[in-house]
Amino acid sequence: MFRGYDELNMDAKGRVGLPSRYHQRVEQGCEGRFVLTVDLRESCLALYPLPEWEKIEAQFNALPSSDPSLALLKRRILGYATELQLDSAHRLLISPELRQFAHLDKCVVLAGQGKKCELWDKAAWDAMSAKAQEADFSAAHLAQAIDRLAL
User: Fold this and answer.
1) DSSP of the chain, one letter per residue?
2) Where do the structural domains in the chain lie, given as residue ranges?
3) Mean pLDDT for back-to-back runs of 10 residues, the chain (151 residues)
4) Most buried in the list 38, 48, 62, 129, measured by CB within 10 Å?
5) Is the entire prediction scored with pTM above 0.85?
């Protein structure tokens, strides 16, 4: 559902417009309803269409609650999970807590990741991109994955 890169401006209230190329897909796929939560590994946010999120949430709920590490994981991901609805101008309102977590300011990046999008602070995205330019993708497990993808 989501692919590509967009630089967007967040307004003073924390609203970000969804690029127009997604409008029809989003209306058909999730009626403009999303869940936004934190990423586990990066200082960015993950935006899921509600139907995709509900699958993930069911998997979380099936995890044993007796494992302290899993309990922390659930608290982090589910605790930050926030339902969002596109407004009439196709904008999403990002809560102050989520903006603070990802250090979002005026200039943000929306990066499509297939079933979800990532929302990054532009400076953080640029830093991560610079690291990716230097990355060595020749490790055996990465080479096998790349071969399977036929890239």
Assistant:
1) -B-SEEEEE--TTSEEEPPGGGHHHHHHHHTTEEEEEE-SSSSSEEEEEHHHHHHHHHHHHHS-TT-HHHHHHHHHHHHH-EEEE--TTSEEE--HHHHHHTT--SEEEEEE-BSSEEEEEHHHHHHHHHHHHH----SHHHHHHHHHHT-
2) 5-149
3) 94 96 92 96 96 95 88 92 96 97 97 96 95 76 72 57
4) 48
5) yes
